[in-house]
Amino acid sequence: QKTQKNYNEKQTHNDMKKTLLLIAAALFFAGCGAKHQVELIPAENFNTEVDGKPVSLYTLHGGDITMQVTNFGARVVSLWTPDKNGSFEDVVLGYNNIEDYVHNQGERFLGAVVGPYANRIAGGTFTVGDQVYNFPLNNNGQTLHGGLKGVDMLVWDVCEVTDSSIVLNLVHPDGLDGFPGNIDIRLSYLLDSENNFVLNYRATTDKATYFNISHHPFFNLKGEGNGTILDNEMIINASAYIPIDEYSIPYGEIAPVEGTPFDFRKTHTIGERIGEKNEQLANGAGYDHNFCIDRKTESGVEFDASVYEPKSGRFLEVFSDQPGLQFYSGNFFDGTTCGKYGKPLRYRESIALETQHWPDSPHHPNFPSTLLEPGQTYTQTCIYRFSVK
């Protein structure tokens, strides 16, 4: 009887142990399966009219990417990608309603297309032939990203929408904010099965003008509002960059990156040298400079840059046919504005990677020309490729 009692007690103990182990295993696997999934912004948050034109929100899918786009400024509002464990985060900064974009209480250019002249024009003026044109001074006495009513603040016409793509069109009218020419711009966004976000632009004009357009995403590969970008590992395929003055206007010099904090030809974290005593870092309040891409062809789509976020394993590569890439390290966010999910948009918690021609090129004959004349067609392709490693 004693032996039987001991046996029964041992069996009960073993059964309890097995039960506890099963519960622990169930909790473990439940925890592993609790992956963050895509959270779509309601379309009704964007259904309105701006300047008498209809605005909507469109949802696209391709590969592992889900993206939402509004035709107000051709803005990418959200972009969800998985991490190395299959958990999704929205890796671009934005707002969850149209009013915040229209009234731009915080950062104006979140996820927008910028133009008709991306980046800066010194003194808000350029000359085409014998004609001098003047533009609003909306950034320290300079014109930034097309002035007060750039393409980011206009409603684009929606030409075509599929599950994975959208085609938009805008005519930037002659004389708007002083810019010459009726500039007819056609833009397509495509998410393909290989997790590429592909942007294609075409533009024509009926009057000679300088034209430089770009997409202005703010990326945080940890997810919007989820922490610093200073630990991100970066490569930029550029042996030279454009030094700027204290107003972010180029001197006209094309400077080698060799021996400077701007040399990203081999992998460096963004924060590794950003705090160094350096005149250019001081002028940009960090990185806010155009990099001159080491191109192998005149017009092919080539590798520009890559960013790796080690915690999530997300890896972003940038390809384009443009001669420049503007890298901005989120130096002017201060946390006073919140993004889509109620999290503050803080200092150096996002990066912009803008494929473009070089800034202020109308004033620098040694820079690649941005003159667009009647009968010519401007084209640009940019690809943001997402993966994990």
Can you describe this structure in just a few lines?
The protein is mainly beta. Helices cover 11% and strands 36% of the residues.
List the helices and strands and how they pair.
Layout: H1 2-33, E1 48-50, E2 53-55, E3 57-62, E4 65-70, E5 75-82, E6 88-90, H2 98-103, E7 112-114, E8 120-121, E9 125-128, E10 131-134, E11 143-144, E12 157-161, E13 165-172, E14 183-191, E15 196-205, E16 209-210, E17 214-216, E18 218-219, E19 233-236, E20 238-241, E21 255-256, E22 268-269, H3 279-284, E23 288-293, E24 302-308, E25 314-320, E26 324-328, E27 351-356, E28 371-372, E29 378-388
Rg value: 25 Å
Strand order of the largest sheet: 12-13-14-15-29-25-24-19-22
Largest sheet: 9 strands, antiparallel
Low-confidence stretches: 2-8, 18-32
The rounded distance between the terminal residues' Cα atoms is 62 Å
Q: Per DSSP, what share of the residues sits in E-state strands of 2 or more residues?
A: 35-45%
- The averaged pLDDT comes out at 93
Give the proportion of residues in helices: 10-25%
